[in-house]
C-alpha cells in the first residue's frame, strides 16, 4: 500500500513563511530582555537586518574550499585577526568554527594529538574543574580521553589551582580553566593553573566562550578584570564565541592557539582516495559561509567603541541586579560574578539553599513572562537559578527584581516539591544500561517526561517543571543521563 508523501504539494511562499512565523511565535522571545539564557540581545536597532542581509549575500557560498571562494579566507582571517588582537599574543593563529562546542572539541583534539606526537602520551587525560562546560566531557567522549574532574572551592566556586596542579600526571594532555564558568559566572585563577600546566609541559585551554568578547571590553570600560587570555604565560589555546557577546547569529565562534605549529594538530588532511584532496581545518567539511559573513558584518558595524559601550551597559545592569539580589531576604548570590552571568539560590530560615523553593521560583517567574534557567545540584554545589545579562536587559532589572519578590512569596506559599523517596531508593539500585524500553517509558511517565502536555507547556513538557526537576535532581547521574537521552529521543521522532 502506498503511504502519504512526507512532503505536501508545493505551497506559495507567503503561506510557508506564515507557518514558520506561527511556529516561532510559540517560542521564548529572543529580543526584549526577558529570556535570561541562550540568547544575547544587544538591543541595537537594525542589527538583525544587517546580519540577515550579510548572511543572504553568502548563503549559497560553500566555505569548504577557499581556492574556489577566496573571499571566505579573507573574512575568516579578519575575524581571527580581531580575536588575536583582543585576546592573543604575537604569532597566535586560529580558526572560525560553528560554536563553542566545536571550538572546545578542536582544542581537545589538538591537545590529544600534540601530546601523542611531542610527549608520547598513549592514554591521554583531560584535567578540568567540576564547573567546566559539559562540552569538554563531550569532546573527551568523542575523542577517547579520560576526564579527571577536580572539585572547585565550595565558597567561591572557582577552580582550585593547587588541586588542579596535583591532578596533572605524565598522561595529561590538557588542563582547562574557565573565564568565566557558565554555571556561576566566576573567572578561574588562570595564571596559576596555566603555570602549573606549563611546569609539566602540558597544554592549557581557557574556555572564554562567554567572556572572550566581553571581559576585554569591560576592562576598557574601567572595570577590574582578571588576566585570562593568551597573553598569560602557559595558556596555549582559547575559545571565544562570537554568537554570544560578539552579537552574531548562532553558529559563530573562534578557537585560538599560541602559534601555527600548535594549530596544525587541529587540521585533518586526506589524499588517499580518488576524489579531490581533502583538508579540513575544522570538524565540518562543507560549511555555511553565510554565518562567517554575518559575523564579519556585525563586528565591522559595532566596532571597538560600540562593544565598549555595550559592555558598560551590562556592567551597570550587573551592579543593579547584584545589589537588588543581595538586599533580598531569603536569597543568596553564589560566588562573586565577574562578567555577565549570575547564579543565585533561595534559602530557608537556616540560611541553607532551599531546592524546593528554587524550583517553584523558576516556574513562578515563567508564569510572569521571564525565563530563568534552573541548574541542579552537583557534588555539594547547591541548585540555583542562572541569569545571563545582555545590553537589552539594562532597562528590565527593576521589573525583574519586582517580579522576583512576588514570585518568592508565591513559591513560599506552595507545598514543598520533593522526589518520591521510594522511587529514589529504587533508582539507586537500577543499572541504566540494562533498562528496557518499557521500563524507561514507565520512569519517564512517572517523572512527567512522557511527551504529554498538561496544558500550556512546550512540546512534551508539563507547564510546571518543579516536580520533574526535583526528581531529576535526586536521581543518580547515570540514570539521569539515560532518562534525558530517552526523553530528547522521544521529542525528536517521526
UniProtKB/TrEMBL annotation:
It holds the Pfam family Pyridoxal_deC. Keywords: Endoplasmic reticulum, Lipid metabolism, Lyase, Membrane, Pyridoxal phosphate, Sphingolipid metabolism, Transmembrane, Transmembrane helix. It is found in: Endoplasmic reticulum membrane. The keyword Membrane applies. Pathway: Sphingolipid metabolism; Lipid metabolism; sphingolipid metabolism. Signal peptide: none annotated. It is a single-pass membrane protein. GO terms for cellular component: membrane. GO terms for biological process: carboxylic acid metabolic process; sphingolipid metabolic process. InterPro entries: GrpII_AminoAcid_Decarb, PyrdxlP-dep_de-COase, PyrdxlP-dep_Trfase, PyrdxlP-dep_Trfase_major, PyrdxlP-dep_Trfase_small. GO terms for molecular function: aromatic-L-amino-acid decarboxylase activity; pyridoxal phosphate binding. Transmembrane segments: none annotated. PANTHER family: PTHR42735, SPHINGOSINE-1-PHOSPHATE LYASE 1 (PTHR42735:SF6). Belongs to the group II decarboxylase family. Sphingosine-1-phosphate lyase subfamily. This is Glutamate or tyrosine decarboxylase. It comes from Streptomyces wuyuanensis.
Amino acid at each position: 500500500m502506498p503511504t502519504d508523501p512526507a512532503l505536501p504539494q508545493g505551497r506559495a511562499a507567503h503561506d510557508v513563511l506564515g507557518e514558520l512565523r506561527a511556529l516561532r511565535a510559540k517560542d521564548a522571545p529572543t529580543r526584549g530582555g526577558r529570556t535570561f539564557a541562550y540568547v544575547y540581545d544587544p538591543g541595537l536597532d537594525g542589527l538583525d537586518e544587517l546580519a540577515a542581509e550579510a548572511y543572504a549575500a553568502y548563503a549559497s557560498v560553500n566555505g569548504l574550499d577557499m581556492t574556489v571562494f577566496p573571499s571566505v579566507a579573507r573574512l575568516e582571517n579578519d575575524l581571527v585577526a580581531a580575536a588575536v588582537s583582543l585576546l592573543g599574543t604575537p604569532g597566535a593563529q586560529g580558526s572560525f568554527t560553528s560554536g563553542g562546542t566545536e571550538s572546545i572539541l578542536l582544542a581537545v583534539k589538538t591537545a590529544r594529538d600534540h601530546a601523542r606526537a611531542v610527549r608520547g602520551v598513549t592514554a591521554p587525560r583531560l584535567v578540568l574543574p567540576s564547573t567546566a562546560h559539559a562540552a569538554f566531557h563531550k569532546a573527551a567522549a568523542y575523542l577517547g580521553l579520560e576526564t579527571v574532574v577536580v572539585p572547585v572551592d565550595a565558597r567561591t566556586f572557582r577552580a582550585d589551582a593547587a588541586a588542579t596542579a596535583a591532578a596533572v600526571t605524565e598522561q595529561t594532555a590538557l588542563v582547562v580553566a574557565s573565564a568565566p564558568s557558565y554555571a556561576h559566572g566566576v573567572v578561574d585563577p588562570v595564571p596559576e593553573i596555566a603555570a602549573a600546566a606549563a611546569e609539566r609541559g602540558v597544554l592549557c585551554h581557557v574556555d572564554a566562550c562567554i567572556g572572550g568578547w566581553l571581559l576585554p571590553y569591560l576592562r576598557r570600560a574601567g572595570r577590574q578584570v582578571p588576566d585570562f587570555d593568551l597573553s598569560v604565560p602557559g595558556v596555549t589555546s582559547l575559545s571565544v564565541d562570537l554568537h554570544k557577546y560578539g552579537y552574531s547569529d548562532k553558529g559563530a565562534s573562534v578557537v585560538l592557539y599560541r602559534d601555527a605549529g600548535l594549530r596544525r594538530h587541529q587540521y585533518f588532511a586526506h589524499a588517499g582516495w580518488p576524489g579531490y584532496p581533502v583538508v579540513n581545518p575544522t570538524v565540518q567539511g562543507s560549511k555555511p559561509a553565510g554565518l562567517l559573513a554575518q559575523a564579519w558584518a556585525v563586528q565591522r558595524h559595532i566596532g571597538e567603541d560600540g562593544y565598549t559601550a555595550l559592555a558598560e551597559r551590562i556592567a551597570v545592569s550587573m551592579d543593579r541586579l547584584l545589589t537588588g539580589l543581595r538586599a533580598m531576604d531569603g536569597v543568596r548570590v553564589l560566588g562573586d560574578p565577574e562578567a555577565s552571568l549570575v547564579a543565585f539560590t533561595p534559602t530557608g530560615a537556616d540560611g541553607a539553599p532551599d531546592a524546593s523553593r528554587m524550583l517553584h521560583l523558576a516556574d513562578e517567574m515563567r508564569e510572569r513572562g521571564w525565563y530563568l534557567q534552573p541548574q541542579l545540584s552537583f557534588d555539594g554545589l547547591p541548585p540555583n537559578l542562572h541569569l545571563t545579562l545582555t545590553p537589552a536587559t539594562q532597562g528590565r532589572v527593576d521589573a525583574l527584581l519586582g517580579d522576583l519578590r512576588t514570585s518568592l512569596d508565591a513559591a513560599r506559599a506552595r507545598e514543598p516539591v520533593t522526589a518520591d523517596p521510594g522511587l529514589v531508593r529504587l533508582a539507586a539500585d537500577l543499572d541504566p544500561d540494562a533498562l528496557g524500553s518499557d521500563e524507561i517509558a514507565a520512569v519517564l511517565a512517572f517523572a512527567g517526561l512522557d511527551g504529554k502536555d498538561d496544558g500550556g507547556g512546550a512540546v512534551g513538557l508539563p507547564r510546571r517543571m518543579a516536580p520533574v526537576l526535583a526528581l531529576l535532581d535526586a536521581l543518580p547521574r547515570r540514570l539521569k543521563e539515560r532518562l534525558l537521552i530517552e526523553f530528547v529521543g522521544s521529542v525528536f521522532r517521526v
